[in-house]
Amino acid sequence: MLRLLSFIAALLFAVPVQAQQAQPFTAEQKAALTQLVREVLVSNPEILIEAMNALEAKQQAEAGKASQAAIAANRKAIFEDGVSYVAGNPQGDVTIVEFFDYRCGYCKQVQPSLMTLIKEDSKLRVVLKEMPVLGPESVIAARAAVAALEQDKGAKYLGFHNAMMEFRGQITEAEIFRLATAAKLDVAKLKTDMAAPKTEQILRANLALADTLGIQGTPGFVIGDKLVPGAVPLDTLRQLVKEARG
What we know:
The protein is an alpha+beta fold. The protein is built from eleven helices and five strands; from the N terminus they run ααααββαβαααααββα. Helix content is 63%, strand content 11%. Helix 1 (2-20) packs across helix 2 and helix 6 (136-148) packs antiparallel against helix 7. The longest helix is centred in the N-terminal third of the chain and has 28 residues, at 46-73. The two termini are 41 Å apart.
């Protein structure tokens, strides 16, 4: 509603402001013009809808250009940071980068789709970036996941990651370590690595990168040169991969 009121105010006073550069309107002229515009809008409310739609389309186009520029300027950090886990084919011709939170319901919702894509597309590369934004438990889970990369050259990361994504309910610290044990991780080492400066640096870098790209929530995807927010359906992901490949 606030955006709509701001738009109406701009519409009402755009002409008077321009006219003042040449010859100021009198108070009576301003009142008459304001009344005329009001009557036109009341009689033709679809004008406002059309104008707001056009404004939103323009803003979306501008945001798309800005995100493409940000992706181009940060390609190495996005696709080849050297620390994020890479699922699927490491030499794949198309990469999906996911920014996620282990407490995010939408991330959990889209997880099976990502796993399906990996299984059905042998040329797909998926980069997983922890983005803990939903509270202390999210940070603990993200630290544990990053720390898991320090064991067996990261071989147990994906199983642990999937277990946390598939977990339903409040993912407490105790549950995280229980899942780590089930994934055959050394929990004592995991706790040590969770507190390491490297772990903190990786998570800070992920959050800073997400902010640079304009990712405002989880999940957020980068596919090719496109920023794709939200839990996208499997068919949409397939189409986006197809477009990136093409």
